[in-house]
């Protein structure tokens, strides 16, 4: 069965794609990974540079579609799929960080917070693992330094 998508004869393409000069909401509905990655690459650039694109993305349902792309990405082993997830997340972050207060509120309302919490939780786990390995390498020497520092701080009135 053919993947559902629209054709774009004005650019001689088989799919509607977002370019650095053109934003089209229909490009986010693409089911094929390669044109979607192409569109998301341009969208990440557009959301970082254009306040108008950030506003339109919130008004036309593009933000909700980006969140759906994040939630529907299940296979994390495929490089293009990982790239698609990263670019969609980058676009959402650009909209949330660089947008107005109303746009930021809309980003929170679309359900991005669980993704941010997951990323921060994974970062915290990785940070603890890395620091644990550093502590193991330092050994007892670092523990003695920590004890002496605590004693020094306890003596300060």
From TrEMBL:
Domain of life: Eukaryota
SUPFAM superfamilies: ARM repeat
GO CC terms of this entry: MUB1-RAD6-UBR2 ubiquitin ligase complex
GO biological process: establishment or maintenance of cell polarity; ubiquitin-dependent protein catabolic process
Protein's name according to its UniProt entry: Uncharacterized protein
Organism (species): Mucor lusitanicus CBS 277.49
